[in-house]
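Lab manual, section 2.4: Encoding a predicted structure.

Procedure: take the sequence of the chain (326 residues), apply the prediction step described in section 2.3, and record the output as structure tokens. A sample record is shown.
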Amino acid sequence: MKMMKLGKSGIEISKIGLGTWAIGGGPAWNREADVKVCIETIVKAVELGINLVDTAPGYNFGNSEKILGEALKQLNREKVVVITKCGLVWNRKGTPFNKVGDVQLYKNLSPESIREEVEESLKRLQTDYIDVYMTHWQSVEPYYTPVSETVGVLNELKKEGKIRAIGAANVTPSQIREYLKYGQLDIVQGKYSILDRQVEDDLLPVCKENQITLQAYSPLEQGLLAGKLPRDYVPTGARANKKWFQPDKMARAMDMMDAWAPLCEKYNCSVSSLALAWVMNQDEQINLLNGATKPEQIETNVVAADIQLSHEDLMRMRKLADLADR
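Recorded output:
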């Protein structure tokens, strides 16, 4: 497994991290998680060299964190880099965000709320520290909190040893620069796949400029680029309203993956590994977050970290993606 530095933190992380949104199960996925299989998946990821695991309280109201906490009992905690988040709550007020099932989520990045959240996460994770604490969604009115106050309490948590590094998800370049005024920002999460390359125009340049790791989430477009879905697939739950799960777009994406067949043969890899490798090959500061719910998915996708695509093949795949998005 290829390793890389996490921003300026000095923490070493695997080039691929395990995302656990789906592991949490619940209304967003129209199913409950098989806890035993989920724990086995996390353990298998670490056995295969993935030392970075990402979770959040918002993943089925703490269930993902609880499952990770159980998995950590079977692992050497000091060898696992845990990311969890703050800023999305359901048990206190904030700015209304969206509903998951019948439960309303709120945005709240006030120092008081973050203090409560970190203790709740530590309890669910059954650990006494969090390696990377990340703001999940940014503060907006009417419960707006200045970035200076949010970063201020995060800096305090670092000094207290409850967190080791600070990250931010769903941010703009200007928000990143605001964070940097008040403290060290080591990682930024942004959606990045061969079918969604907006970060190349905004987040990636500012991350490179400031030695911040860009962690790409949804590199398989919620499973579409795994190449396993049938052409008559009808999306439900979190997939239903997504751009690439609309009938015309989904058909074009599947045509694109069919055209990858010679490349899969050339690099001796699966469609999903090729899609993941494409993202990781874009820049050395990119870390990739791959969701998995079964050990065999980890075994299939972990090889992507070692695939070195030629410039010609990278451009060929980009052109095929442009055709799919015409």
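Check your result against the sample. The CA atoms of residues 147 and 175 lie 8 Å apart.
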